[in-house]
Design brief:
This is Methanogenic corrinoid protein MtbC1. This protein has about 350 residues and is of the alpha/beta class. The chain folds into three domains: about 80 residues, Methyltransferase, Methionine Synthase (B12-binding Domains), Chain A, domain 1, CATH 1.10.1240.10; about 140 residues, 3-Layer(aba) Sandwich (Rossmann fold); about 100 residues. The longest helix has 21 residues. The termini are far apart.
Length: about 350
């Protein structure tokens, strides 16, 4: 019996392979806009969709770019240049998408969040699925978001959060959106592994990728996803939030960094305090422990001296009237290295 002829493989059944990814990363490394756009456009000509190229090439490459920065193999300047090239690729692919045929959604990044490329990718993938999408950009204050929602009345807000220390700000944006009658669909690692903290702050759903955002928009969003969000377990996080500046000042004085690094250390301490506030807000020790571990690794990869033990100890001493907060700090401190001036 003669076997049937081989069936041609469709674009939907193919995957963008490691050689193509390596070539694209080469263009990013060289800040080669023309080469990166040509490669992406060539994939469209080969039958891959805009979604395929954005999710399986550009987004994957950006994760590698972030890893190279994190491990110190790329400088901040190299990371910025590569990200800018990918932004231009997103622009070029977005220009090929047809007019909308479905409802209106708004895409925003949490206030203080300046990593906007992932949100840009989600924007174009959702547009490719037929939605009209308004991209509000990086670091959108809650009050400006809610004003825009009242003006435009979209079907949903897509909210991007990359870092969990900004989760309290995300909670404010979710609360403001729900009060305006607009449900929020969350995305990004800032909402925790598997998005575990998204529902805690009142989001209607969470997605790990741009394809997930499209799938979430296919589901009905009911009145249960608007109005007052679930209340926090208690108001301890508010007390810490009100003392944020004081806590940063105390911890900075305790570690007393050299003048040339004082600004960077102060920023790192502020991020850690924000992570503490977020951990109390969502009632999960893992948030602060994981954030401390990330900060420790980031410092080590750059040869910086670990200050985390002293910072955490200072925060403990300043917050003794909040036992639940102190317990979280101690849990995080268990794995932190000794800071300068801390006795064994």
């Amino acid at each position: 019996m003669t076997p049937p002829p081989d069936r041609p493989t469709s674009a939907a059944e193919r995957r963008i392979g490691p050689d193509t990814l390596a070539a694209y990363l080469g263009h990013l490394d060289a800040a080669d806009r023309a080469g990166a756009v040509a490669l992406a456009s060539g994939l469209l000509a080969d039958g891959f969709s805009v979604t395929d190229v954005l999710v399986d090439l550009v987004a994957v490459a950006q994760r590698e770019v972030g890893l190279r920065w994190f491990t110190g193999s790329w400088s901040i300047a190299q990371e910025h240049a590569a990200t800018h090239v990918s932004e231009q690729v997103v622009d070029a692919l977005g220009a090929t998408i047809g007019p909308p045929r479905r409802g209106h959604v708004v895409m925003a990044c949490v206030e203080g969040e300046w990593h906007a490329l992932a949100a840009r990718i989600v924007t174009e993938v959702v547009r490719a699925a037929g939605w009209r999408v308004t991209f509000l950009g990086a670091s959108v204050p809650a009050r400006h978001l809610v004003s825009y929602l009242h003006q435009t009345g979209p079907d949903a807000v897509l909210l991007s959060c990359v870092q969990p220390n900004r989760l309290v700000r995300a909670a404010r944006m979710v609360e403001a959106s729900r009060a305006a009658g607009v449900p929020v669909l969350a995305g990004g690692p800032g909402f925790g592994p598997d998005g575990r903290w998204a529902a805690t702050i009142g989001a209607a759903g969470w997605g790990a990728s741009a394809r997930d955002a499209v799938a979430l928009l296919e589901r009905p969003l009911s009145a249960a996803h608007t109005g007052a969000p679930p209340p926090p377990p208690d108001d301890a996080y508010v007390a810490v939030l009100h003392r944020r500046r004081e806590l940063v000042r105390l911890a900075l004085a305790a570690v007393d960094p050299p003048q040339e690094s004082a600004e960077d250390v102060a920023a790192g301490i502020a991020h850690l305090v924000d992570a503490l506030i977020a951990a109390v807000r969502v009632d999960d020790d893992r948030l602060l422990r994981d954030f401390v571990g990330w900060q420790e690794e980031a410092l080590t990869s750059r040869g910086g001296r670990a200050l985390l033990g002293e910072v955490l100890g200072t925060l403990e001493r300043a917050l003794t009237e909040h036992p639940r907060v102190v317990a979280r700090l101690r849990a995080a401190r268990d794995g932190a290295p000794d800071g300068p001036g801390r006795a064994g």
